[in-house]
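ok so for the tutorial part 2 we go from a plain amino acid sequence to predicted structure tokens. step 1 is just haveing the sequence, like this:
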Amino acid sequence: MELDIVSLSRLQFAVTALYHFLFVPLTLGLSVLLAIMETVYVMTGRAIWRQMTKFWGTLFGINFVTGVATGIVMEFQFGMNWSYYSHYVGDIFGAPLALEGLMAFFLEATFVGLFFFGWDRLSKLGHLMVTYLVALGSNLSALWILVANGWMQNPVGSSFNPQTMRMEITDFFAVITNPVAQAKFVHTVSAGYVTASVFVIGVSAWFLLKGRHKDFAKRSMTVAASFGLAASLSVIVLGDESGYLSTEHQKMKLAAIEAMWDTEPAPASFTLFGIPDQVNRVTNYAIHIPYVMGLIGTRSLTTEIAGINELTASAADHIRDGVKAYDALQTIKATPRGEQPPADAAAAFAQYGDKLGYGLLLRKYVEDPRQATPEQVLAAANDTVPGVLPLFFSFRIMVGLSMYFLLLTGVFFVLSARRKLDAHPWLLRVAVFSIPLPWVAAEMGWFVAEFGRQPWIIEGVLPTAAAVSHLTVGTVLFTLIGFILIYSVLFVIEMGVMLRAIRNGPQPDNAPVSAILAKPAPKIAATNTSGPVSSMEAR
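step 2 — the prediction. this is what the tokens look like for a chain of 539 residues:
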């Protein structure tokens, strides 16, 4: 990667976003699991369910705090590294972010405090409502963030105003009901539910292997396996919906994910494995499964999926139309204030204005797109093809892990139904070692979503290279290194606190909240079932 302002700004945002998303999915999933566990406590009155809610709630709280600390920086980057982007689309992009703060973050932050310190101050039902509001706030936060991100992928309900030189909202309802945003929301939160389920299963399996808190671990695992199985099915189904929507709104991304260089006769096959060669535009050692891609991408057996070569040629035509839009826009800008622009320029912009973003792709090669040569037009068209090799394998890692989670949660669901959760120690070890895998899948998913739409920061509207701030390479490199160091320290601290809480395990009901974070208690022999925790479980 070249050491330029665009590449460094992209890298900095990618680093901070991927760090932040280490904490988001667990927060989303644990918030719902806490609501389920506390509901059982309120319905049955059994103290062990309260103990479960407190223990997993403590882990939720640790993760929530770190997620907030890493998430705040991301929004400031829009003004720091992407100032032209903020100017160009601030009226649209800022609205869902403001709603996220007002409707979600404040709600979540307020009731998190009541969740931890309201156990003895609120009634059972009152505290349960608090837990549900924490879960609601967590998921509402994801909704508004993904509405903003979905608009970047599919910029509906908006248009470019040549008088203000900015994008403006024309239909806010269309923005919030954007099908891409809705699909991303349900897919992302379902992935968070899977992450939390596998985490709870893995930690509970560790307790069982150590012979500690067996009743606690089995109940936790039963809830997580049931919830995780449903969430895994949801991830797969909603991932299919995302693929279908990509056929409509992001054809190049879908073609790159599939390494589909040429348009195939319908229905297209799915490439199970291959090694894409972007230079020669061929996929070596390809193994195809007939019909599958056609069914996923078009929901039919008769509709074609466009290949990269055809889409590149189409992009070249769009770039030529974008140059016409750029020329008309310059004429409109030159019109004195208070006068009507020439009719031919206004008509030309009305006809070609939706392709203005394609014309701006030429700014990488020439200051004035109207001066671009045919070779530069073709080079800009080739720039619309993202990196095929990393997309191809990232997508398949994500899909393969999704299938694995379905199998894992399904197996433990069956074992819980048969009351044999601790019958196979090797399966418990598999569960423990599976804990990091949902994060791998989630990060791969975000990589596919964001890297796959390059070179656009707003699909078809604004190229990434045109959106950056006027900063020096040294400035961005300095802040990038600083963020990496600070975030790494935060990650190490968060992992240390989480691991200490897990080693300490669930605490007696009369223990203070801080007890779970105290120095680890002495090791308990596997045969020892006495003590306050076991007494709690007996109740």
